[in-house]
Write a structure and sequence with these properties.
The protein is an alpha+beta fold and 224 residues long. 39% of the residues lie in helices and 25% in strands. Strands 1, 2, 3, 4 and 5 form a five-stranded antiparallel β-sheet that branches. The chain has a four-stranded antiparallel β-sheet with strand order 6-7-8-9, with no helix packed on it. Helix 1 (2-15) runs antiparallel to helix 2 and helix 2 packs antiparallel against helix 3 (47-74). The longest helix has 28 residues, at 47-74. It is elongated, with a radius of gyration of 29 Å. It starts with a helix and ends in a 6-residue tail after the last strand.
C-alpha cells in the first residue's frame, strides 16, 4: 500500500503540475514513507507499527473528509441547472429575468431546456419555452394571481440574445388562458416577432426586433 500510494502520488504530482491539486499530491507522497515504516513495524510485531499505521489512516480519512466538505460548499452550481428553471425565475421582474438568463442558458438547445423543465416539474409544457439561439419566448405561471377556475394566469416574456446580455420585454399584461395545449405561440421572421396569445380572444402581438441595438419595439396588434 505504501509503494502504491507513493507511485500514485508521484504520478499525480506530475499530472497536476501548475494546479492547486499539487498540495494533496505532496501530502500523499509524504505519508507514504510513514506508512511504509509502520508496515515494517507491524511485520516485526512492534506495537508502534500498529499505532503509526492507524495514525496515518486516520489522518488520510480526515483529509478526505475535509476535502469533500470543502468541495461541497465551495464548488459553484452551474446556472443552467438552477437559475434557468422557469419556476425559479423572479416572477414578473424583467430585470431579474434578464440577469438570470445568461450565455449558458442561450447556449443550451430548446429541447434540452424543455427536458430539464419536465424533470423539475411534472406539469411543465413545451410551449413555456420557444424560439432559437437569438430570440426566445418564455411563459411563467403567475402565482400572484388567480384564474377563474379554468383559466391559468400567465406572464409572457419576449427575449433577445445580444452582445450586451439578455433583453427582456413583457408581451401581455394580466393574461390568462384556458388553453392547455397551445395558449402561446411564437413566430419569428428576420426582424419581427409575432406572439399569438389565445385567451378569451385570440390576438397576435407584433414586435420589431433589433439585436444590434438590443431593442424590442411593439407594433400594432393584429388578428390571429
Amino acid at each position: 500500500m505504501a509503494l502504491a500510494g507513493l507511485g500514485y502520488g508521484l504520478f499525480a504530482l506530475a499530472w497536476d503540475g501548475g494546479t492547486d491539486r499539487v498540495t494533496g499530491d505532496r501530502i500523499l507522497i509524504g505519508l507514504a514513507p510513514l506508512l511504509a515504516a509502520g508496515a515494517g513495524g507491524m511485520i516485526a510485531r512492534q506495537y508502534w507499527g500498529w499505532i503509526l499505521c492507524a495514525a496515518v489512516g486516520m489522518f488520510m480519512a480526515m483529509i478526505l473528509g475535509f476535502y469533500g466538505l470543502f468541495r461541497k460548499f465551495t464548488t459553484p452550481v452551474a446556472p443552467s441547472a438552477t437559475a434557468t428553471l422557469l419556476q425559479r425565475l423572479p416572477g414578473n421582474n424583467p430585470q431579474g429575468i434578464a440577469a438570470a438568463l445568461g450565455p449558458a442558458w442561450w447556449n443550451t438547445p430548446i429541447e434540452e431546456l424543455r427536458k430539464r423543465e419536465h424533470e423539475d416539474n411534472a406539469i411543465a409544457r413545451d410551449w413555456e419555452i420557444q424560439g432559437d439561439g437569438r430570440t426566445r419566448l418564455i411563459v411563467l405561471t403567475d402565482l400572484g394571481r388567480t384564474g377563474n377556475g379554468n383559466s391559468i394566469p400567465l406572464n409572457i416574456f419576449l427575449l433577445l440574445n445580444t452582445g450586451r446580455g439578455t433583453v427582456v420585454r413583457p408581451v401581455t399584461d394580466g393574461f390568462s388562458s384556458e388553453d392547455r395545449d397551445a395558449p402561446v405561440e411564437l413566430k419569428v421572421s428576420r426582424q419581427q416577432a409575432t406572439v399569438v396569445v389565445r385567451g378569451s380572444a385570440c390576438l397576435s402581438k407584433n414586435f420589431a426586433l433589433d439585436h444590434d441595438a438590443g431593442a424590442i419595439t411593439p407594433l400594432a396588434d393584429g388578428p390571429c
